[in-house]
Amino acid sequence: MVKDLNITIKRLIWRRLREGKRFKHIFSCIQEIDRFSKEEIRRLQLETLKEIIRHSYSSVPYYRRLFDSIGLSVNGRFNFEDIAKIPFLTKDEIARNTHDFISSHSKKAFLKKTASSGTTGRPVVLYRDLYSINFENAILWKQRSWAGIKHGDKKATIRGEFVVDGSKNKPPFWKIDWLGKELILSSYHISSKNVRYYLEILKNFRPHYIEAYPSSLYLLARFIKDLGLESVPVKAAITSSEMIEDYKKALIEDVFRCKVYDFYGNAERVSAIATCPAGNYHILPEYGFTELIDLKEDKYNKELTGTSFINMSMPLIRYRTGDMVVPSPGQCECGRQSQVVQSIIGRLDDIIVTPEGRYIPVIDSILDRDFYDIVEIQFIQEDHCSIRVRLVPGRDFGNSDRNKLISKLSERIGSNMKIYVEEVDSIERAKNGKYRTVISNIKRKEYE
Ligand SMILES: [Zn+2]
After folding, report:
1. Is residue 404 included in any domain, yes or no?
2. Would residue 428 count as lying in a domain?
């Protein structure tokens, strides 16, 4: 009992810190940016960049050394061309110099330590200040407000949180956070057997919106549809943390009778992308300076690189996220002038590379309605010559589906790669509960 009370008080304090006065102030300020002209956005970004560069030079050891070595002047005129003189920053570089990235102006005792997974498996330690935490929260609320969500609306969450033990086979597979008006559902117990329990609690709780990993919500929608069950309509579904393919989005929208708003962010907090009411992805200019850089072998996709505007305690400049997007030359009909991207492809490391060096992104987009009998699928590449497909078959999945899958896949990747198909009962999630569509163990040159 005492332990529970303690947790509750901690949560209360955390919520107050995250959603206190400063959060409200930031949230109201960033609404204005939606009405900025292109020129105003440019000015906002340039002025903020100048501030970050000067701050980094004066208080961050790593940047003082770097700017001196490349002869970057921080006090004279500074333009967008000048930022291009700064070399790109990689995850490994942060891991090697972690403490040299911390600003001497920051109050170390108040920094929140966190970690993101490194390319070599070694986690990269990151530090955030309270302003950054408040800003991040304001940005999440911006996405919610674009989706029509209001403070006080009830939320159901399916985001890989550990709710109950994985071996538990009886409900509840959820918990209710009475403070946050939140129903937290397990991502690890969704099955055709348990879907009725999930629906029952959703019907009782009546959430206004759902926040989820796309894979978890898709799976739930899939079972509801397959079993012909009556769903629970919500105002919106906000997805993030994994890529979402069109067919998954369509099914979720159909089953929960809502629109899906996909949000992109990264642990390093250098760039954020939100979905507007017109259904397009907008790069948020108040969050960071985002550059879409060319890839050596790939003419179509770009790598997302960002300079964070929100964490002065550990500034990251021109950080390569390793995430790929397809840029859009167009303008959005919603009227917001910020840059639009057509789609978010996902991790650069999670791409199939053919023996000829071709890049095949979002490989499961080949799964159209012809393959409705595949519940989940994962592509694993261990070497250049073969690809292993692991799939959870639906009730009517048979040999002809298997052959059709192999032939469709061959069309994409060519005949030089062998394809092995393996039927499994379920696809394991990563430690954080995330689902990975493509796992590539091929070492890529630009990350060596
Ligand atoms: Zn828009």
Report:
1. yes
2. yes
Q: How many domains does the chain have?
A: 1
43 alpha carbon – ligand 1 mean position (Å):
21
* pLDDT per residue as tens digits for the range 184-221: 999 888 888 899 999 999 999 999 999 999 988 998 99
State the distance from the centre of ligand 1 to the C-alpha of 429, rounded, in angstroms: 33
Cα 89 to ligand 1 centre (Å): 30
Cα-based torsion angle of the residue sequence 304, 307, 311, 313 in order, rounded to the nearest 10 degrees: 120
In sequence order, what are the residues at sequence separation of 6 or more whose Cβ sits closer than 8 angstroms to the Cβ of residue 178?
Answer: none
Distance from residue 222's CA to the centre of ligand 1 (Å): 29
State in Å: Cα 303 to ligand 1 middle. Answer: 21
Does residue 170 belong to any structural domain of this protein? Answer: no
| Confidence grade of residue 118 (pLDDT, cut at 50, 70, 90) | low
Domain that holds residue 412: 352-447
CATH number at residue 386: 3.30.300.30
Nearest to 321 by CA among 296, 352, 290: 290
Distance (Å) from CA 139 to ligand 1 centroid: 16
In a domain, 329, yes or no: no
**Distance in Å, CA 278 to ligand 1 centroid:** 5
